[in-house]
Amino acid sequence: MEPGSRYPFGGEVVVADRRWNFYVRDVGRVVARALRAAGCEADVVLTDDRTVRRLNYRDRGKNKPTNVLTYERPPEILLALGVVRREAEREGKTVMAHLVHLLVHGALHLQGYDHHHVGEAREMESEEAKILARLKVANPWKNR
């Protein structure tokens, strides 16, 4: 299936910034697999830093791009390529592995998980690690 069409997980994948295709082979299937594993139905928009910065400012008052934004209605996960790429490089992992982690992270936010307090963060990180293990993606919290 081409990105921008419906996938079996119940959402749509929109590759708004085509550079995602350079960093993640078969990006639509990667997204579908991650969201299925997380038990989440949401649309996913793979976009650029500028778009995410604008939305982050509009909706959260933060005038900077962030790696992932989630919206509950309609359920939607947006990811900023530049931030994701820089974080992956800094953390020594592939863009695909970091994308999968952030998709799971966003999916868990849509399911009510949060990380504002230490206990919440531990619970969310534990759930992320379980899902990522099923996807054969290394635990991002293991060496902290």
Automatic annotation (TrEMBL):
Zn(2+) binds at H105, H109, H115. This is Endoribonuclease YbeY. Single strand-specific metallo-endoribonuclease involved in late-stage 70S ribosome quality control and in maturation of the 3' terminus of the 16S rRNA. It comes from Acidocella aquatica. Binds 1 zinc ion. Its cofactor is Zn(2+). Keywords: Cytoplasm, Endonuclease, Hydrolase, Metal-binding, Nuclease, Ribosome biogenesis, rRNA processing, Zinc. InterPro entries: MetalPrtase_cat_dom_sf_prd (IPR023091), YbeY (IPR002036), YbeY_CS (IPR020549). The lineage of its organism: Bacteria, Pseudomonadati, Pseudomonadota, Alphaproteobacteria, Acetobacterales. It is found in: Cytoplasm. NCBIfam families: rRNA maturation RNase YbeY. Belongs to the endoribonuclease YbeY family. Pfam families: YbeY. Its EC number is 3.1.-.-. It is an enzyme of class 3 (hydrolase).
